[in-house]
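Exam revision sheet. Question 4 asks you to relate a sequence to its structure. Input first:
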Amino acid sequence: MEYLNVSNELKVPVLGFCTYGISPSQTKQAVLNAIKIGYRGIDTAQFNRNEAPTGAAVKESGINRAELFVTSKVQTNGYLATKQGIDDSLERAGLDYFDLLLLHWPMTDTLGSYRALEEAYKAGKTRAIGLSNFNIQQTQEVINNFGTKPVVDEIETHLYLQQGKMHEFLTQNNIIHEAYGPFGENVAMMVSIPEVQQIAKNHHKTPAQVILRFLNQSKIMVNARSTSLEHMKDNFNIFDFQLTPAEMKQLQRLERHQPIIDWPPSMHVDE
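Answer key, structure tokens:
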């Protein structure tokens, strides 16, 4: 595993396991499988409705809690609702703390919601806080109004939407760029790109492994999702090869500034 340093000197795995879209009944076993394979970053959210089985898997995994990096996201609007929501999430997960709490979306009262995250951080309920689906202006507003800077912004990122301007802004502010939807929620389309297939042949790897490695080598944190043991193992086994500078440039040229999942118009800063 490789790690990125967040601004409060906390290390985060560059590759984690995503539970979005996995039913609550399947989540516990999926997370247990992921931890057994070697994943140490586990990503859940209030929206996913699977914080409880995620926490159960963390506790039953046999791995020291300090070795796991557990993220959840809050979707509540305003200070009081978010403050209560954080406590509810911890209770559902059965955990004493999260490693990272993200504000899932910009809200009508973003600043109130973020204030609750900052308080949770200071109270030891989370080791770090951050954002998800925030553009440059929205992120800057949070930075301007709080002493605790977000350490992550999770945004739709894949070969067709590489988020160059957002990445530059986040890097300048020492905020980790985290990708959701690394395959654009269309794995078949992404792995069939000729350039990706050729590079995969060069390294005797799968196209999916090439895509994940490209993002990690671009200093982008990624959470990959699968309930297939084979695919989970493949997604994890990306640290034994390195894309060349020429291959990186080849993949960078695939940029289309094209959202595929649910990227809102307010986020289109690359065009």
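Marking note for examiners. The first strand starts at residue 3 and ends at 5.
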